[in-house]
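User: Please fill in residues for this 166-position structure.
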């Protein structure tokens, strides 16, 4: 028996959220960048029926733009959602840690990452499913950095693949 996973995109808009007339879409999209943050949050409440997340302005604008168009023109077709999920499975095999890292940013399997810590050189090998350090598999570089240092680190920063604070 196959279980069907329902995604947010498949859930139809709540009956309390009215559809947006198609002719209104361009004006509504053009108004978003000029809205004060308080109005963006109010628009979020109107279009999503929930409290806005504590993310930055660009995120709110992009999600509100998509939601406006979704309410006017409809969301993704179930076939499209299924296809996107299948492609995602081929790329990351349900590994949530790998899914969070954009494919083009992830090191190629076989890459060796070197880091000296307190006079000891540590070598991490990138595998297809994650990473390997001292012969043991890990799903994230952060877990390896914590094992090495005993404190929490962003693994990408610890291994020099991203600047601190970036």
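Assistant: Residues filled in for all 166 positions:
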């Amino acid at each position: 028996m196959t279980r069907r996973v329902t995604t947010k995109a498949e859930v139809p808009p709540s009956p309390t959220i009215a559809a947006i007339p198609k002719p209104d879409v361009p004006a509504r999209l053009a108004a978003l960048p000029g809205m004060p943050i308080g109005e963006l949050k109010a628009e979020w409440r109107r279009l999503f029926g929930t409290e806005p997340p504590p993310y930055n302005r660009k995120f709110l604008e992009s999600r509100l733009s998509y939601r406006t168009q979704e309410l006017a023109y409809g969301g993704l077709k179930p076939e499209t959602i299924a296809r996107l999920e299948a492609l995602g499975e081929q790329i990351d095999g349900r590994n949530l840690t790998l899914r969070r890292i954009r494919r083009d940013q992830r090191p190629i399997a076989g890459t060796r990452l070197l880091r000296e810590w307190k006079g000891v050189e540590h070598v991490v090998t990138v595998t297809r499913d994650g990473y390997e350090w001292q012969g043991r598999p890990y799903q994230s570089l952060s877990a390896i950095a914590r094992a090495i240092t005993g404190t929490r680190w962003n693994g990408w920063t610890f291994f020099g693949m991203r600047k601190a604070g970036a």
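For context: The mean pLDDT is 82.
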